Amino acid sequence: MDVLAYEAVWWAQGRVVAGLDEAGRGAWAGPVVAGAVILPPDPERLRQALAGVDDSKRLTPAARDRLYDRIRAAAATAVGVIPARVIDEIGILNATYRAMEAALAALPQPPDALLIDYIPRPLGAWEQKRLVRGERAAMSIAAASIIAKVYRDRLMVELEGRYPGYGFARHKGYGTKQHQGAIARLGPAPVHRLSWAPFRQPRLPFEEDVSEQ
C-alpha cells in the first residue's frame, strides 16, 4: 500500500493531517512521549526528502537520528511529554492520550484530521483513523514514531547523567536484566513508575534487551 494513501485522501479535501505515535509506553522508567507530525501535501517531494522513513522499531539508532533531522526540516513537528509521576497517578493509557493531546497543542498549526498508531478509543473529537501497525501504513505516523523515539531516547540519556548507575542511556528505561540488577542494588529512582507491577513483586521480570524498541 502507498504509505501516503491515507494522507492523500484528506489532502485532496484541503485537510491538515497530523500523524501521531508514542514511545516509552512499556518502559519501567522515564516519560511516555508522543510525537506529532504534519507533512506538507507534496507527495513527490516527500518521497525524496523522507526516503527511508519507517516504523522507528525497524530502524537503527543512527538511521533514526538522521531521519529525525530530515523530518524536522521537511515537516511541522511537536512532542508531548508525560512524566513517570503522572503515569503513576492516571495510568499509562490515560498518560498516552494526554501526551498526544499535548503534542497536538504544540504544533504550529492545528490539524483537522489525525492518523494515529492504534489506540483503543478515539482521541478527542478530531476526525481520525486509528491504524493497526500504523507506522507501516502511513508516513505521517512513521515520522511521528521517529520523532517520539529519538526525543525520548535523548531524554533517557540525560536521565543517566542525573541518576547514574541505572543504565538509562543503554536500555532507555525498559525492563532489561541490567535494569533489574540496578534497581536491586540502588532501589527505584524518582523517574521509575512505582505503580507498575514489577515494583510490587518480590522478583522483577525482565527482558534480555529491548533497548532498541
Keywords:
globular; 213 residues; alpha/beta; 5-stranded mixed beta sheet; 5 strands; Nucleotidyltransferase, domain 5; disordered C terminus; 8 helices
How are the SSEs ordered, and which strands pair?
Elements lengths: L4 H7 L5 E7 L8 E7 L4 H7 L11 H14 L1 E7 L1 H7 L1 H15 L6 E5 L9 E5 L7 H24 L5 H4 L5 H10 L27
Parallel strand pairs: 1-4, 4-5
Antiparallel strand pairs: 1-2, 2-3
Helix pairs in contact: 3-6, 4-5
What does this structure look like?
The structure is a single chain. This protein is of the alpha/beta class. The protein has one domain: Nucleotidyltransferase, domain 5 (2-Layer Sandwich), CATH 3.30.420. It is 41% helix and 15% strand. It has helices at 5-11, 43-49, 61-74, 84-90, 92-106, 139-162, 168-171, 177-186, and strands at 17-23, 32-38, 76-82, 113-117, 127-131. It has a five-stranded mixed β-sheet. A hairpin with an 8-residue loop joins β1 (17-23) and β2. α3 (61-74) packs across α6 and α4 crosses α5.
- Could you say what the CATH architecture is? 2-Layer Sandwich
Overall geometry comes to globular
How many domains? The number is: 1
The largest sheet, given as strand count, sense and whether it forms a barrel, is: 5 strands, mixed
CA-based gyration radius: 17 Å
How many β-strand stretches? 5
| Average of per-residue pLDDT values | 93
**Major beta sheet, strand line-up:** 3-2-1-4-5
CATH class: Alpha Beta
The SS-based structural class is alpha/beta
Classified in CATH, the superfamily is Ribonuclease H-like superfamily/Ribonuclease H
Q: What's the helix count?
A: 8
Which runs of at least 5 residues are low in confidence (pLDDT < 50)?
208-213
Fill in the CATH topology: Nucleotidyltransferase, domain 5
Give the topology string: H per helix, E per strand. Answer: HEEHHEHHEEHHH
Distance between the termini: 24 Å
Considering DSSP H and I runs of 4 or more, what fraction of the residues is helical?
40-55%
Strand content: 5-15%
